Amino acid sequence: MLRWPTGRPLRSVFMGTPDFAVPSLRALAAATTVVGVVSQPDRPHGRGQSLRSSPVSAAATELGLPLFRPASLRAPDALAALTLLAPDLLVVAAYGKILPPALLALPTLAPLNVHASLLPRHRGAAPIAAAILAGDAETGVTIMLMDEGLDTGDVLLQRPRLIAADETTGTLTRALAELGATTLTEAIAAIRGAGLRPVPQDERRATYAPRLSKAAGRIDWSEDAVAIERMVRAFTPWPSAHTTLSGRVLKIIAARVVAAARPAAPAGTLTLRGRDLEVATGSGTLALVTVQPEGKRPMPGAAFAAGLRAAADARLGR
What is the reported pTM? Predict the structure, then answer.
């Protein structure tokens, strides 16, 4: 049973980097005494490659919390600095790096992780995109005890959330970020009350969600329309589902399935049907709702179609 005496101060260190982690940081600051925040170093951003702080670094500065941005968690000075903080809880949310065993052993009570799936399903770096790609009806968040494995620790608390038919990784990430913060608040309240009982994960049900790469977004039009539509949603906003037309990159921002039957045209063939720009797939037809041609802003598929010559003969991904 994981429990902390009522009335005794609970010191915590938070580790996180992207926007997803910010609501959890704010929740932790409201529920405990945050003695330190760890985020990744500033990174070059944009065409000018100017240094930009992570969203968690910015939030920590706003909240007036001590901020650490070590280049490596394995450096002796980084571990020594965190050891001096003497935390009772270590809370991690999308930090982006594997934690060394010495860091996991640092808190007097436990190291916790806010994970954006219902473990053991979708362990790994990209659980939100993986849930959409798999066509899952629901996902959720898990508060778990961290161990040296990849999201293999005991589960403390889970909260589910349905996945809407038009949900993208962007919209679902924002929703799960808030749900993660709420669930973390619940978990800390329970730890300070009756306690939380760790439950081992069922290894037979485990699936993995590896980190996404830019190459993963390239569309294979021989796949079926349902799978490609999920891919478009899963890879929005990054790395984006993309293809080529006449040798130039075309991003597919939004699409919808308009027919499930196998089309007569070869996969990737574009067709104008009324105001819709449709594309044949290996099984079924997709309407391209929003696209982004190379070097241009996103636009409706109909507007893009208006600029095409001989659209009936155009073919994507050649």
Answer: 0.94
- Rounded to whole angstroms, the Cα distance separating 176 from 116 reads 7
CATH 3.90.1720.10 fits 214-313, yes or no: no
| Local structure of 105: helix, strand or coil | coil
**Domain 11-209 and domain 214-313 have a common topology:** no
The closest of 135, 168, 288, 137 to 234, measured between CA atoms, is 168
Q: H-helix or E-strand containing 252? A: strand 248-259
CATH 3.40.50.170 fits 11-209, yes or no: yes
Residues of the chain with pLDDT under 50: 310, 312
Domain ranges of the chain: 11-209, 214-313
Q: What angle do CA 16, 22, 26 make, to 5 degrees?
A: 110
- pLDDT, tens digit, 9 for 90 and up, residues 24-81: 999 999 999 999 999 998 876 656 566 789 999 999 999 999 999 999 998 889 999 9
Cβ(142)–Cβ(157) under 8 Å? yes
Compute the C-alpha angle 260/265/266, nearest 5°: 100
d(CA 18, CA 22): 7
